[in-house]
Design goal:
The complex is a heterodimer of chains A (about 375) and B (about 260). Chain A is an all-alpha fold. Helix content of chain A is about 70%, strand content about 0%. Chain A has one domain (about 35-40, about 50-370): ABC transporter involved in vitamin B12 uptake, BtuC. In chain A, about 50% of the residues are buried. Chain B has one domain (about 5-90, about 145-250): 3-Layer(aba) Sandwich (Rossmann fold), CATH 3.40.50.300. Classes of the chains: A mainly alpha (about 375), B alpha/beta (about 260).
């Protein structure tokens, strides 16, 4: 019988239509993000174009907000591609901030040691999250929900017990001249902005102690961190062997195991990456504000997940893009600040979030069907 | 004929009080397709999982190229050259053909995956198997079930499998896709690889098999070479004898 058969495969092709350019584009995970970014810029260009949203200060304002979302979205995206969630991101941000303040201010460690200890503790907690998920096989949703409460509890309990307060200040003084703290709080390329001011591209202060200085002094490290994380995350995910394993772990863990991918290790490491991103976020926030508060980061886990989903990632794992997540974060930042510039009631931001989340998920589900050929 | 690549002698496997395998002997030689037939619950799955290193036999001996082997994990079996293609877990649908093909063994150029090499090798290996891909970036989800099996087989062959275990590769496929997979099996066999073809479909087995071994209730009922046995006899052996014969009478020999 086998001798009489035509050559295997290939022949089914007559039933597959050529994929048009549009469809090819549709299956790129970043599509929703790109369309969304263009839409919000046009929208606010019209609605708030003359409100100062697009002058240097305005741009700095929404870029910073976007960069904040971006930092946590990168971690959440890589974890989601690996097939897991982390709901403890927000609590981790609060926890990391308080940890830096406790070690660096209350217990008097040098700030750089406080930062390093905090990174070790937080990444360790991320690893514990991952270990529990991998070992028990429980949904990460439940495991990290538990950590959402556990971490928030400790974040309030520790400063409350030691210091009888939940907001710790004095971080600016303690961090003065610290090399590690400065990579989270500095503004870089200040000379360039002085030049810009000289050329009259950006305005200068006309009175007060900073008279003559440009209104935007430089690019905050927050934005630099966000861009570094996006570039590194995207490169790892799309170009390296480890990235392939991340996709595989989220796409079908069992199939990946059969070909020798260390799925458990990959998943645990992605929980650690998420914790790392949360800690970066906390560092930038703490050194910018000069205080740490136990209620920081509330709801951040959901904002990160929404940015990732807007960026085209599937909640079920195995598909997504860091660049897409970054675009999701930009949409977030621009809309949140844009509503403020446009003088719209801020509570509408939540309405917007819900609506755009729904749209994104519906689009993603449709895209998934195109890719896998399901009906 | 040549010596067997893999020889399994009197394999027994007990799961607690349950005797899954009660003395199974089986071997496969280079360039042959040895079909392992059996009805549901006959012990086929347990047996191939023992062969591919997932289970350790309770007693019995596994010889690989004349040497006694002791596989502790699927990885050990894979490194020795025993590759298994599972029916539904072969591929990840959302990932591209290239990414699936190289998964776990991605070629590197410096820090990054060497996509030029990965893509061109994938295309040419798939062509050898008779599948013309539109693009190596195509998601596996767009391929038919038969094509997915073929990608998995091509992958195993490319990475140097000496023995290829196919776990019911045709059971979920349509007629045409089945014939494609059977043609692939034939091609692989001609390349000198020993194929273990697990199925409960006698006609599929007869199409490509050189030898046939029937499992029933955890025991081998014997091995026959091509031409020594008729499809009806095989069918009867699998079903354990007379009930099937009666049924067949009423169904007019169509089963």
């Amino acid at each position: 019988m086998s001798e009489t058969q035509p050559a295997a495969g290939g022949q089914d092709d007559e039933r597959i239509k050529e994929i048009g350019g549009l469809r090819q584009w549709l299956i790129r995970p970043e599509l929703g993000g790109i369309v969304g970014v263009i839409t919000v810029f046009i929208f606010f260009g019209i609605l708030a174009g003359d409100s100062g949203m697009f002058n240097p200060q305005g741009i700095l304002n929404w870029s910073q907000v976007s960069a904040q979302f971006m930092i946590i979205a990168v971690g959440a995206c890589m974890l989601m591609v690996a097939g897991e969630f982390d709901l403890s991101v927000g609590s981790m941000i609060g926890f990391a901030g308080i940890s830096i303040a406790m070690f660096g201010v209350v217990w008097g460690f040098p700030m750089w040691i406080a930062i390093l200890i905090t990174f070790v503790i937080c990444i360790g907690i991320g690893a514990i999250n991952g270990l529990i998920v991998v070992r028990t096989g429980l949904p990460s949703f439940i495991v990290t929900l538990a950590f959402l409460f556990i971490l928030r509890g400790f974040t309030i309990f520790i400063p409350q017990t030691v210091e009888s307060r939940t907001i710790i200040g004095g971080i600016e003084d303690a961090a003065e001249g610290d090399w590690l703290a400065s990579i989270f709080s500095a503004d870089i390329m200040q000379w360039l902005f002085v030049k810009f001011a000289d050329w009259g591209w950006i305005e200068t202060f006309t009175r007060g102690t900073r008279e003559g200085e440009p209104v935007v002094t430089g690019i905050p490290m927050l934005i630099v961190w966000a861009l570094i994380l996006v570039v590194v995350g995207h490169t790892i995910l799309t170009r390296t062997r480890y990235g392939n394993w991340i996709f595989a772990a989220g796409g079908d863990a069992q199939a990946a195991r059969y070909v020798g991918v260390p799925v458990d290790r990959v998943k645990i490491s992605m929980f650690m990456v998420t914790a790392f991103c949360s800690t970066i976020f906390a560092c930038c926030q703490v050194f910018e504000f000069g205080t740490a508060a136990a209620d920081r980061g509330i709801l951040k886990e959901f904002e990160a997940i929404i940015a990732v989903v807007i960026g085209g990632a599937l909640l079920t794992g195995g598909y997504g893009s860091v660049v897409g997540a970054a675009l999701g974060a930009i949409i977030f930042g621009v809309v949140q600040q844009g509503l403020f510039f446009a003088g719209v009631e801020n509570s509408l931001f939540r309405v917007f979030l819900g609506v755009i989340l729904l749209f994104a998920v519906i689009l993603n589900t449709y895209v998934r069907r195109i890719i896998t050929g399901e009906r | 004929m040549s010596d067997p690549i893999v020889k399994m002698v009197d394999i027994k496997k007990h799961f607690g009080p349950v005797i899954a395998l009660n003395g199974v002997s089986f071997d496969v030689k280079a360039g042959e397709c040895h079909c392992l037939l059996g009805d549901n619950g006959a012990g086929k799955s347990t047996f191939i999982k023992t062969m591919s290193g997932v289970h350790k036999p309770t007693s019995g001996e596994i010889m690989f190229e004349g040497k006694t082997m002791n596989f502790n994990s699927p990885r050990d079996a894979m490194e020795a050259g025993i590759a298994t293609v599972y029916q539904d877990l072969a591929m990840i649908p959302l990932m591209s053909v290239t990414r699936n093909f190289w998964m776990g063994r991605e070629p590197k150029k410096g820090l990054f995956i060497d996509f030029d090499k990965a893509n061109s090798t994938t295309m040419s290996e798939m062509k050898k198997m008779g599948i013309n891909l539109r693009s190596p970036d195509q998601a596996v989800g767009t391929l038919s079930g038969g094509e997915r099996q073929t990608v998995a087989i091509a992958r195993a062959v490319y990475f140097g499998a000496k023995v290829l275990i196919l776990d019911e590769p045709t059971s979920a496929l349509g007629v045409r896709q089945t014939s494609n997979v059977l043609a692939t099996v034939d091609r692989v066999r001609k390349a000198g690889i020993g194929v273990v073809f697990i199925t409960h479909n006698v006609r599929h087995a007869m199409a490509v098999g050189d030898r046939f071994t029937v499992l029933n209730r955890g025991q081998t009922l014997g091995t026959a070479a091509r031409g020594e046995i008729t499809p009806e006899e095989l069918q009867d052996l699998m079903a354990g004898g007379q009930e099937m014969a009666q049924l067949e009478g009423s169904l007019g020999g169509t089963v």
